[in-house]
Write a structure and sequence with these properties.
274 residues
Amino acid sequence: MSSTPDAIDSSSAGKYQGSIVTIVLVGVAAGFLSGLFGVGGGILIVPGLVLVAKMDQRIAHGTSLAAVLPISASSLLSYWAHDHVDWRVGACLAVGALAGAVLGTRLLNVLPHRALAIGFATLLLVTAVRLFLPLTSEPTRAVLSIGDIAALVAIGVATGILAGLLGVGGGVVMVPAMMMLLQMPSAMAKGTSVAVIIPTAIMRTFRNRSKNNVDLRAAGILGLGGILSATAGGWISARMSDTVSNVLFATLLIIVATRLVLQIRADDKAGVVH
C-alpha cells in the first residue's frame, strides 16, 4: 500500500486506496446532490468508494452512512434557513424510518431480495413518469389528520426497510411521497427529507461501527468535501421552480432504478442467489 501523503489507507475497516483529492471530489459531488435533491448522497458515495478507492462494498455502505451525517446536516441548515422544513411531518417519517431500519435487518434473509429490487425499480420508474406531469402544491397544512400521520409513519417504515435491504437512500422515497400525498412544495419536501435522514444515519452508523463496517477517516474526508457543496445545492433548490425540480428529481429516480436493474443483472451473471 502506498505511503504517500495523497493516499489514504484503512487496515481495520477494509483495505482500499485512493487519492485524498479524489475522495474529496466524491464528497463534493455527493454534497451537491444532497442539497439539490434532499437525499443522502449515498447514490454517489458508494460507487465512488468502490470504483475509485477500491473499497469493499460492505465497508463502502457503512462509510457512506457516516459521511451522510455532516453532509445532510449542512443541507438541513440551508433548507431550514429558508423555512423549508416541516418538523411535524419529519417526526412522523423518522419514527417509521427508525422502526423500519430495525425491521429491515430482521427481514434481510426472509424477503426475496431480487423480486423486491425489481418491484422497487418499477415503482421508481412509475413515480418518475408521474413527476414529469404537473403536480399541485399547497401551503403547509395547519393540522395533520390521523390518516396523514399513519400514512407518513408507514412511508417511513417502508423507507427504513428498503434502505436496509437494497442500500437505497430514503430521500428517493420520501420526497415524492410527500409531494404526492401532502401536495407539499418540492423544496419543503426535500428539506424535510434531509431532516429524517440524519437520525436514521446516526443509528446505522453506530451499528456499522460496532461491526467494524465503517471507516471514519474516509467518512470525515467525504463529509468535509460535501459540507459547502450541500449548502450550495440547498441554496439552488430553494430558488428552483417546482416544475424544474420535479423533472430533475424524476431523472434522479430513473438513474436509481437503472442502477438497481444493472445490479440485479450483475448478480445474476455472478450467480448470486437472493
